[in-house]
Amino acid sequence: MISVVGGTGRLGAALVPMLTATGAEVRVVSRRGDLPGGLGGLVRDVVRADVREPASLAAAVAGAELVVSAVHGLTGRGVSPESVDHRGNVALVDAARAGGAGVVLVSVRGAGPAGNELQRAKWRAEEHLRASGIPWTVVRAPAYLELWQDVLRRSAGRGGRPVVLGRGVNPIAMVGVDAVARAVADVCLDDRLRGRVVDLPADQNLTLDALAASISASGTRPRHVPLPVVRALGQLLRPVSPGAARVARLAIWMDTAPLQAPGA
Q1: pTM
Q2: What is the pLDDT of residues 227-253, one digit of tens each?
Q3: How far apart are CA 5 and CA 36, in angstroms?
Q4: Which of 10, 27, 137, 247: CA 20 to 30 A from 166?
């Protein structure tokens, strides 16, 4: 059995049908313990668990040969890269080890000790997994194209003008979520990939400005928040809205760091 933790999220919902199509027995693990309509006819085994609640994870991994961590945490009450991507994944790895299962951890491109907040959190989870003594594979993926399309659409409002934080001219390596799901499915089904870090290639390099322009209402242009304002928001919002401050800091990084993938 393959237990997909975060199985109703953007990646998990694409991954589960690919796994079940191969005849694999799949369990979906989610914080709510329910299924979206598209998965209702594919999976019967559904478990409510939260990686931030270690006591809930025994049921999530029970009887599984392999556990997939498809969770990410950026904003929300009690949700952060530290609480989900680091400590949550550590708890999941420990539960999998206690249950005799291996782990496929979906990480991010550039994960490392000197990266941004998310990259550092994923790196610490990777390190814990590598030291766990269980079969493991890490899949590092570029930014999800559909995620940033949705973020920009939500910012557009009724006027159809997406909001870009910063200049929006920095090329960013992006990939479609289906390509990530296919790669993760292949990793799950190939034991030869245990003990490896799999770096997924980007589909393309896109600027947020170009992405926003592609979904702007006809005859309109994206709106921009100047980078100095974004920097100020990242500091001012930290004590009152940590999630919003985190988004501002992420926007600065996406606007200034070298994020272009060669050859994409």
Answers
A1: 0.93
A2: 999 999 999 998 889 888 988 999 999
A3: 15
A4: 10
